Amino acid sequence: MRLSGAAQRLTVLVGESDQYRHRPLYTEIVHRAHRMGLAGASVFRGIEGFGASSLIHTSRLLSLSEDLPVAVVIVDAEPRITAFVAELDELVTEGLVIVDEVRVHRYVGRGAPEGSG
């Protein structure tokens, strides 16, 4: 797969302990993105943050927080991101979904021939 030029970045910000049908929400998002054939998805665990609850969650040793912020980031072409955002309506009940216009300089998937790109 080759993706370059104009694209969109989808960022889903949720809590680490958020669940969907007894599994981590971020895992469900990644697996659905994979099933829909999106270019890729990465999950980033935050070390500190707060959201709608205004409670600060932190990974510092003396903190009791186990609900750290998590960001799922997906980059793909606009029509594919738009279709995936509709999937998120069912999944994300509390969190933030951000879509940005981005420019991809190079993406070559597995099995690309030498010198392509």
TrEMBL record:
SUPFAM superfamilies: GlnB-like. Pfam families: DUF190. Gene3D superfamilies: 3.30.70.120. It comes from the Bacteria. Belongs to the UPF0166 family. PANTHER family: UPF0166 PROTEIN TM_0021. This is DUF190 domain-containing protein. The lineage of its organism: Bacteria, Bacillati, Actinomycetota, Actinomycetes, Streptosporangiales.
